[in-house]
Every structure is written in C-alpha cells, then in structure tokens.
Specification:
5-stranded parallel beta sheet, single chain, 9 strands, 4-stranded parallel beta sheet, alpha/beta, about 40% helix
Length: about 300
C-alpha cells in the first residue's frame, strides 16, 4: 500500500508498521530535497495549512512552518494568546472560522489531552497533532525513530532507554508506541515519583537506576524535566534539580564508565547540567542535531502523505 491508512495523525496509536515505513521512505526523499541548493518542491502548492498553537512552542512550530514552506504550501499561523479564545470562543468555533477561510489542513498543539482527536471528529479536514497535553507528540516519535534508523539501521531487538520525567511527557508515550511497533525493547528510567504506575502495561521495563540502565541500553533518550506541567505541587517530585542531576543526569563520567558506545538523544530543549551535561550533549555519541534536521523532513513527509489522502 502506497498511502497512509489514516486521514489524520492524532497519535501513534492507529498507525501500522506499513505507515511508518511509508513515512520514513518519504522523509528520506525529502531530506535529500532540503540538502539541495534549492530546498523547495511544489508538492503542496495552492494548499493552505493552518498552524494552531494553543500552547507555547518554538521548536515544533518553526519545524512545521519550515516543512510547510519547503513544500510550497500557504501557511497561516494562529496563537491562542492573540486570539478570540481569550474572549471565550470555543475550540470548534475557532477552527470552523479558520476552515471558512478554506484551509486544507490543521496542525494543532493544545494543552488538553485529546483535543486534536476531538477536532478531527468535528471537521472534514486533516488534523496533525503537534502535542496535546501529556498525551502524545507523534511527529517527535517519528523523527526520533527515523533518526535512529539512519544511525543504527533496523530497530528490531535494539535496547532503547527513555530517562527522566515520564509522568508528564507526551514524547515518552509516543516514543514507546512507535519503538514497540518497530520491534525495539524499551525501558523507562527515572525517580519513582516520575514513573506512572500504568506504564509497565505498555510492554516496557521500569528501572530507577540510571547506571544499570545505561549498561543495558544501546540508545538513551534523555527527557527534560517538565516543570511547567508539574503544577503547584506541595509535595515535590524530587528534592532539588541538583540532586536529580546526580541521580539521573548523564555526564561524561557516566559515559566513560561504560564499556561500549551508546547513542544519545534528546527531544529538546535541553536543560544543560540537569539531564545532560554540555560535553555529553555535544559529543560524538549525540544525534540531537540530526534529530532537529530530520524533524523538518519527517514533518514534510507527514504533511505530504496526508495531503495525498484528500
């Protein structure tokens, strides 16, 4: 099958292994495009994409916007802070008004889990989830898996550790689903307070020991502490950032203590000195900058393939 099995990308759930292969194949072709002197193709000419960001974002929004412009789409950017949402307008009203302007596709980030799926059920336009609360962030998982495929080849049997604030991370959930679909072994690691109780039901191992986990894994994906999603918690999830860095931060001493090379990832932005030291983030083992570059190619692939479904 040479087209996606879905009309929307609201999460990794619902995608097939064939969908992933098709996205990766298209992303490989688009990566060649964005490394040419002329980086644009007319694939989505006369196609209008609305970026609806009800939550602050820089990296993801810019990555999507660049992907859209590389495909020659017309782009409409919408942020809730400058909108009628502040005046009480509902999500459906806002989007219907934008669709009345003949928008062909919606990319949405929203603080409430399930908002992109709710929207997809209400409108006859493809919706891409750019992150919904602590639920999912599917394009991040796709670009992470694509980056690993480029580095390691097939991921079946590869041991991947996801370390950090699993409880508040939409990246972790999407990565687990995507990696398991590709046959990887997944382990989550972090303080007990930051590991959801249900997580083992997703078919992952659970650890609270970073050094042992680093010995087990081939790849480690270091997640940022999501302080902005932890709320005004009277009982903190850990004592201090310094103590967190001692227990669960990846530094050069830990890396040098391993008897093997491992691949280091981070979805960004990095809290340098907390989950990663600068010398590790910038080391030869890190593929963080490749993740950023691949993000544009993967999002180009998703936009193009969903547009072809219309």
């Amino acid at each position: 099958m040479n087209h996606l099995s879905v009309h929307n990308l609201t999460g990794i759930r619902g995608l097939t292994e064939n969908d992933l292969e098709l996205i990766f194949q298209s992303a490989t072709e688009f990566k060649e495009v964005i490394n040419r002197p002329i980086k644009k193709v007319p694939s989505l000419r006369d196609f209008t994409v609305a970026n609806l960001f009800f939550e602050n974002s820089t990296r993801t929004r810019l990555s999507f916007e660049l992907a859209e412009k590389r495909l020659s789409a017309d782009v409409v950017n919408f942020t809730a802070g400058n909108s009628s949402v502040k005046k009480g307008e509902t999500l459906t009203d806002t989007v219907n008004n934008i669709l009345a302007m003949k928008v062909d596709m919606v990319v949405m980030r929203h603080p409430h889990p399930g908002a992109p799926q709710y929207l997809a059920n209400k409108i006859d336009t493809s919706v891409i989830n750019a992150g919904d609360g602590t639920h999912e962030h599917p394009t991040q998982a796709l670009l992470d898996a694509f980056s690993l495929r480029q580095k390691l080849g097939e991921l079946a049997g590869v041991n991947v550790a996801i370390v950090g604030d699993i409880r508040h991370s939409r990246v972790a959930i999407s990565n687990i689903l995507c990696l398991k679909l590709l046959g990887a072994n997944v382990r989550v690691c972090g303080p007990k307070t930051l590991i959801p109780k249900h997580i083992a039901s997703m078919g992952v191992e659970v650890s609270h020991n970073l050094d042992e986990t680093l010995q087990w894994c081939d790849v480690v994906n270091m997640l940022r502490i999501q302080l902005e999603r932890q709320g005004d918690n009277s009982v903190p999830y850990f004592a201090t950032l310094r103590e967190y860095a001692v227990e669960f931060g990846l530094n050069k001493n830990r890396l040098d203590a391993l008897n093997k090379p491992i691949t280091i990832m981070h979805p960004g932005p990095i809290n340098r000195g907390v989950e990663l030291s600068s010398d590790v983030a910038d080391s030869e083992h890190s593929i963080i900058l490749q993740q950023v570059e691949n993000g544009v190619a993967v999002r180009m692939a998703v936009l193009y393939l969903l547009a072809m479904r219309r």
